[in-house]
Amino acid sequence: MNVKKISAGEVLLFTFFLILLILYIFPLYWMFSSSFKTAREITRIPPTWRPMDFSVEGYIKVWEPIFARFFLNSIIYAGGSVLVALFTSSLIGFVIIIYPSKLGTVLSWSAICLIMIPFTILIIPLYLLLVRLHLLNSYLGMIAPRIVYPFGIFFMQLAVRNIPRDLVDAAKIDGCRPLGIYWRITVPLLKTSIATLATLEFVWRWNELLWPLIVASTERLFPITVGLASLVDPYFIEMDQYLAACVMVVTPIIVMFLFLQRFFVKGIAITGMK
């Protein structure tokens, strides 16, 4: 039996990545374990590494009707942004690559340039546009910037470029119209890239605080990030309640990433976005 010899360099590299993994995972472990501790145990010195007095009081205290509303708002905002961004980005990327034109080239370069501009610079123009369209304090106003999503357009362009042109040409010869080629040929071949973009967009929108806070001025539209910030008092924080809320905020992201992990890794590799 041939046993592969492990070099000293490989051992050092493995040790380095193991330490890095522990550094990333430990805060999550501490948050999850502390969410089941009492408020007194969380602040105990020296700290306890696991709950000595198992308690779900933090979850009971935090899960009030208003917090449930924040949770629902985040699902609507993140989910709506994902659906809009996926549709418009894949369609625009499809048109730019499959039907090249001067307008498409301008659109492509405009998307690249907009990616380089910080979103904070665009907040005031977008806000004034929403005022004119009477879209403030609405889900549509929160989702509106995703209708033309520069990063999504750039990402889907790279994905569409990998589709064999022979398939597209064959569909054209068979008399398939542009929308038919998009829906029947392009979309099925872009499942991996679509899942990747959906994961990235959902995580970014779920964690977003600034834009929803600017568009919405009533509690009924605040997302979970605003609700989490409202639990932080300048003088006192109920640590068990706050950590339980953090777990509830992080869990949907972890579940989604675990579910779409294989698509995410493959999609990044296919589009060359390593």
Q: Please indicate the percent range of residues in DSSP E strands (runs of 2 or more).
A: under 5%
Report the mean per-residue pLDDT as an integer: 85
Q: In the CATH hierarchy, what is the superfamily?
A: MetI-like
Helix count from the secondary structure assignment: 14
| Total tally of structural domains | 1
Distance between the termini: 37 Å
What does this structure look like?
It contains 14 helices and no strands. It is mainly α and 274 residues long. It has a single domain, classed as MetI-like (MetI-like fold), CATH 1.10.3720. Helix 4 packs antiparallel against helix 13. The chain starts with 7 loop residues before the first helix and ends with a helix.
Give keywords.
274 residues, single chain, 14 helices, MetI-like fold, globular
In short:
The chain has about 270 residues and is mostly helical. It is about 75% helix and about 0% strand. It starts with 7 loop residues before the first helix and ends with a helix.
Question: Secondary-structure map with pairings?
Answer:
Layout: H1 8-34, H2 39-42, H3 57-62, H4 65-98, H5 102-116, H6 119-133, H7 139-143, H8 150-161, H9 165-173, H10 178-189, H11 191-206, H12 210-215, H13 224-230, H14 239-270
